[in-house]
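Researcher: Please predict.
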Amino acid sequence: MDEQTLAEVERAGTQFNAVTAMTVDRANALTAESNDRRDSGQPPRRLEGIPFAIKDVIDVVGYPTTMGSNVRSDAPAANSAPVVDRLEAAGAIPVAKTNCQEYSYGILGDESAFGRVVNPVDAALCTAGSSSGSAALVAAGVVPLALGTDTAGSVRVPAACQGVLGFKPTFGVVPVDGVFPLSQSFDTVGLFASDLGVLTTAYDVIAGDDSGKAPGPGAVPGLTGSGARTIDVSLFADDDARARDLLMPAPDLTITSANGPALAELLEDLAPIYDYIRLYEASEVHKDLYAEHSADYQPGVAKKIESGRGLCEAEYRKQLEALAELRERSLAVFGGTDFLLTPAIDGPVVRWDEIDSGTAAKFMRYSMPFNVLGWPALTIPLPRAGGGEGPQAVQLVGRPGGDRDLLAFASQLV
């Protein structure tokens, strides 16, 4: 990795408070390896020389994993997470670990021991979270690729607020080993990118060659190749220009709103299941740490952990059963539909000084359901209209296990 790129990442990291550590030693060692391969005549790997950033809940060998928290060990990680190893094996170069909402627990990105990340689009606008810093480095144009995690929208919502691509794969397809958990029933490693081709290649790398099918029974096979497609837009208001303009280039596409009632019922049923499971699992993850260091947590994060304490394990098991049943029932929503198109967030990107008690729910309204269901989803930024208007984005959702099909279809739109 050339010194100029590292300097640009460091500059942007400081300007936007997006970096917790520069991984210079690792970058230099892997760059030397890449140069040796080139000099010996070996063909370039799929991501040869591409710089990438890593959310600081994901282990990188030789560097502490801070989780955006004062409650941490500063001992360097003994091993990298498999997603990092896979990107490096494909030739990508890690350049920085990125600032994030403490322990990934919050969609606004407003609480980190390092302070909140600054939105490169407009410093007055909320970055969203929890993968705020990874989105910011891509939005600033200093890296083309970054890793984040997504439990209720923590990749897709920051991508929407900062004007970049954000992808959450099918639940369970990408390994989460070496990633500090928030809620294991919903946690997914995701990707930010400025270019869909880079994102698609990176997905292929981190998912592996056998990831075309969702894990476990009940997956709906994705359609592959070209041909007639059907997309449901029933979660948009009537004749929403964002949906109409984005879909215009796609050939042989049928647009429908037939799934509206079924989707509305799913949205109503899944929220309480998500809330109970997430509160219980996050509280269990933090039980010992919180007992010893409660005063050192960020106030809002501490409040969420407190909310999960004392929840009943028997009820948690019932909610897991309800989740499995909901995921099975949800497959019928697709029927003859290949994709769903939804808003990315409910309303415009808010300013930091406009955040209120309802903002988090608006941010998660269209993202969280697809963590609960486990379906792949991609935030697509839309061209800005000018006049100071903030970023706008939509979300493209695919069949479970149909990640590559979703990304291939998206390539017709962007």
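Model: The first helix runs from residue 3 to 15.
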